[in-house]
Hints:
Blueprint: H1 4-20, E1 33-39, E2 48-52, E3 60-67, E4 70-74, E5 76-80, E6 90-98, E7 102-108, H2 120-126, E8 130-137, H3 157-163, E9 173-175
Parallel strand pairs: 1-9
Antiparallel strand pairs: 1-8, 2-7, 3-4, 3-8, 5-6, 6-7
Amino acid sequence: MKKFLPILLLAFVSLFTYSCKDDNHVDSDTVSIMRDVTGSFTNANNYAFTQGINIASTDVVLVYKNVGNAWQLIPKMVYIPNSTGMPNNREFQYNFVFDSQNVQIRIDDQNFNLSTGLNSTEITQYLSNQTFRIVLVPANGSGQHAKQSAPVDYNDYNAVVQYYHLNDSNVPKTKAK
């Protein structure tokens, strides 16, 4: 009995250690990836364009709009300043929807006709050649590419890049479909 107890204890500890350590584990979470897509919102495309993606249904899609030298999380309401000859109180929202195959970036909730309610400068500023960064991240934030710390503020693009260890120095670029 004296010899059996240490062997049993050793077997238990070995089993416990083996079950807790998994060096061959392949992380099945989505690898955080980014892609820039540039497109123009027009009446012909119903003020929307689509970019193909491929993610698990449990993962998260973040979309940021390029604003000068910064990235701004959408959805984002845009309030257009009053302009001579244009309707007053013009506003719309950059928004997106996604599924496991596509992200559609669009303009929603406009309170005026976009095709007649913007002058040429505003069309260039708000509708033409707009660049968005699509960021795919694991929903649980516990994958191998995420730190084990407090949740990230998704509104802060730089915090997301740091949290998920993303390299944004050479992001692939595509034209919208």
